[in-house]
Amino acid sequence: YDSFASTPWITALVSFVQTVLAHPRVKLVGVCFGHQIIARAMGAKVGRNVSRGWEVSVTDVDLTTAGQNYFKKEGQEVLSILQMHQDIVFEYPAGVQALGSTERCRVQGMLVPGKVVTVQGHPEFTEEILTEILRTRHEQGIFGDEAYQEAMARVGKKHDGLLVGQRFVEFLLDR
After folding, report:
1. Which of the chain's termini has less CB crowding within 10 Å, N or C?
2. Nearby residues of 13 by Cβ (< 8 Å), 6 or more positions away
3. Out of 32, 35, 85, 159, which one is annotated catalytic?
4. pLDDT confidence bin for 72, thresholds 50/70/90
């Protein structure tokens, strides 16, 4: 599904997220598609990354100062996270703190303290999950041989998925 589509269920979801965002006590966590839907609900443009294509496998995200503080990686400028997307948020919505960026996707994470946190990557993915997705998409012809081999070369690389998940829990618990 495309976060930028005008299908009835997508537009209803965006409207629902806008309602949730207006609620003073409800917090939102967005991952990949959720990151895109939240950004769209906040007025940002989302769409297919036609010029840069897919961003896949373990990818280093360049953290902003806010990202370093949020992920408790002071002095460390990179967060490694599993990626699997070709759709992106093109610009940060008003009122959010930028958490990080990559060459292919400038909006890798957003924070509104006490209200919203999102990431474009997949902290919930494991090497096994991503390997299976890569294999399947290669077999389906979505990824050519070169892109597949390049992604497979990074799939087992150390990543910060657990750290991101821990920070989400702390965010939800006001820690």
Report:
1. C
2. 37
3. 32
4. confident
Q: Which of 89, 67, 98, 93 is nearest to 80 (CA)?
A: 67
Q: What one-character-per-residue DSSP string does 77-99 give?
A: -EEEEEEEESEEE-SPPTT-EEE
- Token pair for 107: 């909006």
Burial, 39: exposed, middle or buried (Cβ in 10 Å; 0-12, 13-18, 19+)?
buried
Instruction: Confirm whether 32 is a catalytic residue.
Output: yes
Residue 3 CA neighbour count, 13 Å, CB half: 28
pLDDT (average), residues 112-139: 97
Q: pTM (2 decimals)?
A: 0.95
- Pick the catalytic residue: 35, 85, 122, 159? 122
Nearest to residue 79, comparing CAs of 150, 169, 137, 166?
166
Q: What's the rounded Cα separation, in Å, for the pair 33 and 2?
A: 8
CA–CA distance, 57 with 157 (Å, rounded to integer): 9
Taking the alpha carbons at both ends of the chain, their separation in whole angstroms is 34
Q: Average model confidence (pLDDT) for the chain?
A: 96
Residue 138 falls in the annotated catalytic set: no
55 in catalytic set: no
